[in-house]
Amino acid sequence: MPKNNAPLVITRIDERDAGRVAYITVTNPSQHNALGKRGKLELIAAFETLARDDQLRAAVLTGAGDKSFIAGADIAEMKDLDGAGAEDLGNRTHLACDAIRRLPVPVIARINGYCLGAGMELAASCDMRVGAAHARFGMPEVRFGIPSAMEACLLPGLIGWGKTRELVFTGTLIDAQEVHRCGFLDRLVPAAELDTAVETWVTAILAAGPRAIRIQKRLVADWETMTIKDAVQAGIRAMVEARDTDEPTRLMQAFVDRKK
């Protein structure tokens, strides 16, 4: 852990003409950016604070250094937990993932190395994932006598049931190329191109309508739990809601003017 109670999670805000972009970094590189109890609380607080920022347009989650994104929990901290302690830790993991999922704007996972256990759950909770070619992924909890739980339940929707079973039953690690093939990574790039790939997505988000993006994120979350019939109706309501301001008219007029 960082000495002298130094923060485990650091947030940097980039002020741009189109709004704010937040960069959230887990900074515990000596332990592969493992998140203990304190780190999870800091991550929850960081995302809950960002959720109140009406000018926020996008967020990027990453780990310090070039070896690890987030390598999961602090095993030394976990080894002597009783049932109540395990429940508390599980709740903190869930609340950290949920804070990411509930942020009203897109969250990009910038995966710069090991992405293990709770780290893979946090990445799964992000909206978009780009990984460096040297990154490694896995859900090794069973090797430590506990199941993969909480937001590991998101994995089947991203990588399918077969690959999920392989990861959670064996605890083995897979490389970035395989995790890209099975759909967990949206983009796979050399480590030197991570920031460029992230910026490409951020630039595209900033070029879109800020209110439309927030409505879209909420709509995507609805799709996860709705039938197709209900999702279509939710989409129609979202289209109507988008017309509550002049944002569609302004952006469409700008497009027409450029065509002229």
Encode the helix/strand succession as letters: EEHEEHHEEHEEHEHEHHHH
CATH architecture of the largest domain: Alpha-Beta Complex
Strand arrangement, major sheet: 1-2-3-5-7-10
The span between the termini is: 58 Å
Round the Cα radius of gyration to an integer and report it. 19 Å
CATH fourth-tier homologous superfamily of the largest domain: 2-enoyl-CoA Hydratase, Chain A, domain 1
Q: What value does the average pLDDT take?
A: 92
Tell me the structural class: alpha/beta
CATH class of the largest domain reads Alpha Beta
Tertiary shape: globular
The helix tally amounts to 10
The major beta sheet can be summarized as: 6 strands, mixed
Fraction of residues in helix: 40-55%
Pick out the low-confidence regions: none
CATH overall fold name of the largest domain = 2-enoyl-CoA Hydratase, Chain A, domain 1
Quantity of strands, as a count = 10
Beta-strand share of residues: 15-25%
Task: Explain this structure.
With 260 residues, the protein is α/β, with parallel strands linked by helices. The chain has helices at residues 37-51, 75-78, 83-102, 118-125, 155-170, 176-181, 194-207, 210-223, 228-242, 247-259, and strands spanning 9-16, 19-26, 56-63, 68-70, 107-111, 114-116, 128-132, 136-138, 174-175, 187-189. The chain has two domains: 3-207, 2-enoyl-CoA Hydratase, Chain A, domain 1 (Alpha-Beta Complex), CATH 3.90.226.10; 210-259. It has a six-stranded mixed β-sheet, with helices on both faces. Strands 4-6-8-9 form a four-stranded mixed β-sheet. The protein starts with 8 loop residues before the first strand and ends with a helix.
